[in-house]
Records
---
Amino acid sequence: MGWTSDLESAMQMLIKTFHKYSGKEGDKYTLNRGELKELLLEELGTYLGNSKDNEAVEKVMNDLDANNDGEVDFTEFIILMGALTVACNDFFLDFQPK
Amino acid sequence: MGWTSDLESAMQMLIKTFHKYSGKEGDKYTLNRGELKELLLEELGTYLGNSKDNEAVEKVMNDLDANNDGEVDFTEFIILMGALTVACNDFFLDFQPK
């Protein structure tokens, strides 16, 4: 043991980042709207743009909060990150020589 | 720019790891069965166990290759990683004080 692959690090970073924000207030294992907004702005500023109240953040929050309970659980967070990662991969591939 | 958050690193590691194996042979943008097996054993040995031909690896390969085309694309890979990350998170939470 001891050695950690990039893939294992990626999984650990996803888990660590979610709980860093979900633990701040209310239910420790879900993100409320404030916690989600903070996570998106602080951790994904590069991808979503750095404006403090931009459309991308609002759109993500509304999409994830479709049932209006105001909470995002870990599975919903992972679905979001998966969709973002696929979008990123497509973006990079567009710049590859065919 | 320049500063990269843990979440952005995680996305980059997922993309980098997939292409490290998908580029080895055949279609550069999909994993064939051999490439997938190599990725799982080399990058996820800690989670799947370290035996060279264990059941976990075979099960993942069969699940992902449901359409029998023998290729796993990036979106399918991300769905697998998402499911594994959610399972890991559940596992860690079971050991948290309630």
---
Amino acid sequence: MTPLLYLVPVLGIVGLIVMFAKAGWVNRQDAGSSDMQEIANAIAAGALAFLKAEWRVLIVFGLAVAVLLAFSGTLVENSDWVIGVAFAIGAFISALAGYIGMNIATKANVRTSQAGRTSLAKALSVSFTGGSVMGIGVASLAVLGLGSLFILFYHLYVGETGNVNGLEMEKALEVLAGFSLGAESIALFARVGGGIYTKAADVGADLVGKVEAGIPEDDPRNPATIADNVGDNVGDVAGMGADLFGSYVATTLATMVLGREIVSTGDNANGIAPIALPMLIAGLGLVFSIISMAFVRVSDDNGSVQKALNIGNWGSIILTAIASFPLVKWLLPSGTMSIRGVEFVSEDVFHSILLGLVVGAIMSAVTEYYTAIGKRPVRSIVQQSSTGHATNIIGGISVGMESTVIPIIVLATGIFLSYKFAGLYGVAIAASGMMATTAMQLAIDAFGPIADNAGGIAEMSHLPEEVRGRTDVLDAVGNTTAATGKGFAIASAALTSLALFAAFCGTAGISSIDIFKADVLAGLFVGAMVPFIFSSLAIAAVGRAAMKMVEEVRRQFREIPGIMEGTAKPEYDKCVAISTQASIREMVAPGLIALLVPVIIGFLFGPEVLGGTLAGVTVSGVLLGIFQNNAGGAWDNAKKSFEKGVDINGTIYYKKSEPHKAAVTGDTVGDPFKDTSGPSMNILIKLMSIVSLVIAPHIAVQKHEASKAPVPPKVVLVAKK
Amino acid sequence: MTPLLYLVPVLGIVGLIVMFAKAGWVNRQDAGSSDMQEIANAIAAGALAFLKAEWRVLIVFGLAVAVLLAFSGTLVENSDWVIGVAFAIGAFISALAGYIGMNIATKANVRTSQAGRTSLAKALSVSFTGGSVMGIGVASLAVLGLGSLFILFYHLYVGETGNVNGLEMEKALEVLAGFSLGAESIALFARVGGGIYTKAADVGADLVGKVEAGIPEDDPRNPATIADNVGDNVGDVAGMGADLFGSYVATTLATMVLGREIVSTGDNANGIAPIALPMLIAGLGLVFSIISMAFVRVSDDNGSVQKALNIGNWGSIILTAIASFPLVKWLLPSGTMSIRGVEFVSEDVFHSILLGLVVGAIMSAVTEYYTAIGKRPVRSIVQQSSTGHATNIIGGISVGMESTVIPIIVLATGIFLSYKFAGLYGVAIAASGMMATTAMQLAIDAFGPIADNAGGIAEMSHLPEEVRGRTDVLDAVGNTTAATGKGFAIASAALTSLALFAAFCGTAGISSIDIFKADVLAGLFVGAMVPFIFSSLAIAAVGRAAMKMVEEVRRQFREIPGIMEGTAKPEYDKCVAISTQASIREMVAPGLIALLVPVIIGFLFGPEVLGGTLAGVTVSGVLLGIFQNNAGGAWDNAKKSFEKGVDINGTIYYKKSEPHKAAVTGDTVGDPFKDTSGPSMNILIKLMSIVSLVIAPHIAVQKHEASKAPVPPKVVLVAKK
């Protein structure tokens, strides 16, 4: 091993120290009046109640799977019972990442409202620092966890043998895959559960509050308003934190597994350079994300928040790209390397990293185009709102489907080129490059819901109009970053899945997945169907839970006297309880589908059919993910367009006009698309790939020697007479 | 060759004679009052105007492609310039099939209204006979065209050589593929153009007529009502006729191409039994469909129309299945056959045929479950209509996505088992079995829009209430048969595509499609995206055209005095012109995508990447097809449920209630789903496969000898020291 590897966990610890410092700063900010604090405490309590309820379910599930994995690990030679422990650690850290995010978000929200009384600059500072705590926390935990576990497993399995490309290393990485599986499993449940929670509350609150009772959003008279604000924290913050933690780990792991297969002539890391590289790039990305966060500031109320975020984002990306060049050059062998027959040199690896960054940037840009106010797609939905609800829906679905074209072509080109550069390692390292600045990405993503909450608190505690104006500026930017973040997530998931998929094939001992075989093609069909049933379950769950919420809110309006006059307080906790119970119950079925389908198909039909299934899941999941995220985002902003008035055939329409009502319908349909099922797609496809990778040794078609075994003797064909 | 083959075109001619007899019978029925005839003539004129406009565009396109094909056919040894002629014939017959259907439908509609004045039995008799004319016509033309062209090409290329498994036969079948390409190309344009036409008129008429002006459906005061009724004929009749003609030909052809590859020891058809079998089964199916049509009758007004149709349908299926056993047994070799390494005997082929029939039946049954009034899926949408437009839409989307599960599992099982039975030939012959009773299927399908039109004419010419009641009974059954027909169409398309796909691989000289290769996987992604952009274009086209229609109808209501009082006639022809122009213009882009994508990918990236693309198109097209068809059907019947009143939480809601308005929104969204983009999916996937098959000789990786070439000498591996 190389001492350089110790740098990885050290960087993780440094990140955690920075995180604590930033969290301390946020906590020291003014938390406002007692009214504001009371509301904030109710939100925090609701969020914590959800997390506790969720954990109660997940701890049972987690322990069961950990035991099962530990047992199964003893059955094959290239795994170990330790995989169960790795799984538990991954699951625990994933839950912890969600908790850290939610904890800081429920503190930063009210402090952002209070800061909004002074200036936009101050409000941005508080909300973005809150987001940064989560971003740095998630990335640091990932780097620390992966780095230290890899070092541990290296010593445990490879150790003295020094056989860094053999069965020993394969075993170390297989056990490490358990860590990733733990992380991604929790991520799926957190994303789906949180997504159902937040949208049930949001849709329920809107349907009765805005549409039936005619009271504004976040009005304290609406019994579902606290649940709605809790939802932002458990779905958009805790769910997203677990999601990106899982992605980050999965991407890095997949690259490491493929790195083991690289045949080379020696490097500067005692032969493990290709395995160490993704972890070191992750470490670099963390450092430059932290540095670039200093750039995110606006001078006064006229500063452009979007521009400030862009500077920070691009700063971290460019710095990481520049720094990775000497790292790649120095670390990797100077000669030719090869993986599964594709030859490449260190520059090719660097080009793959750059390509990953470019693909991620284009995906984000396309997403922004399709969901931004004033651009052609959203404008077309606005126009189609003039002829009613139905044409608005048709318009949104059409825009969402159209929005798949460029991302898919970009993605296909990315796969094609990164493979040309450096084979499957190129594809994987492109994803690693894309994910390197996760800390910054997540900080930008998480600041949105914090600002959203801050606006809600400002409304509920009757702060001056200008405060809400400032939080609205932040919130609007947050909507855009949420959309672009999703485009980015799905791109990285596609590349990561492909890498995991390749790792799976290696471990399962298959060298091709031939869809020309009927059984593999049947697997492809079944796999492609999974994202449909998954989405169906998630969307239906939101619909059902929202209907319960509607009934409860209607009941309270009916039965609690004085509620509409503001003289009696609604029973917020009842609504919180409805969202909590519904989301916990409804997250189980989609989660189990994701976990069980690969196991059932793998054991019944073998690895090649499972490979076909994974390809189906990936392709269909990416398409449905892009479709749902972008349709939802476009509907949302079509509705928002009415706030300033829109011109339809020469007439200006505002809120409460008939076309606006149609636009509200579209937004409500889009809510579960963009915040429940859509963003779950990227976890779904990665989780199913990781499950397959973990079971691969059990369903392998043949015991195979590690791929750096001596090159077999050349063969010639001789015809037998 | 075997003289038996001459039976195929003879059966086609017999079919055409029966068709003319039935058409004559329909024409001799009473066409009703002059009022009724005037309306019927307006509908017929509008439909003919559309077909003429469509043909003007398609003739240019068709000639261009024919010339291009003829030229390309001279470039490779296993094709010929005659392929251009075959293409032109296929295109012409496809257009003719559409014309025949539309012509009889526009005569049967008014005669069904008139017959409805007497009894339900009589009305069913007229409308079903009208549908039968189309069904028999389409199937007869297919059998006649395929049979006579095959005989011709056999004499042209194989002739004296007698080499029925070599390059000569490959050439004959390749040229015959041109016929299928012509048929399927026209089918796509007809389906998409007709689908846009009918839904633009329907949505436009409903949005202004029902929703804004509050007048009933088919009210003569609505300027779009003639266009709406024309739409039923050009979309649901002419479009569907061309569609099923194309499917029928493609399925038979694919089986013939694979049949050539079968290695056997001699049969009762001079070595071409596996090639002749699908044509003979098609002939059998035609005969038994005609016979079973006699069973479709109800005794009086209380008879069950659905039951009568079921008896006819199952009669034809069971008779065909029984008769195919001795045919298969006698025709095929008694010994073992093999295709690409899979060995089988004649019983296995029979089992595949049976399996195809079972898969088709299950697909239809599942479709019926998901779209029928009173069943759980439609009931859930009804319930979700109580909380508004948005939850109705969420409910429908969720139901549509869920409805993919069982069909995909059934289909995957069908692929898996039929392959086990008889290799790729088994998959293809299963599709042939499923399609054998196309004449009956189409008769049942086409009677629906005839009954729908009859109801419209009854309404517009103010016939007594009871007449509309009788046509409504027929129309309701027609809605169910339309839905199940689509389930059937998508199942057969999936199997056919797989067979074409296999035929393509054979001709292109590739023996695997390894999605583990990065470029093939990239192709899979791009292919899976095509149905999304195709659907997006089709849906958006309906939205745009409907908006134009809405504006025109609003203008007429505003500018023509006396229109609402019924004293002035609306300008029906303006609306007809809008639908015609819009649909012709908007059908071009999706059509070109389907035709050009395989050509571009095939020539740029080669056959294996194209294979990946085809797999992507097929999987994603099948899923989106099922999703869109069933969501649309479920929304439609959720809306219809309100006619008799629905119970939501103890309250009974009827038409014009708030939940009903939400249900109307869902129905309108579902219209382009189920009648434009959804049913186009099955043509899309087949057309792209046929295009690939036709270009296969040009992009083949190697010149290859026909697969029945002498077995190559065995090889052994010898290590070179």
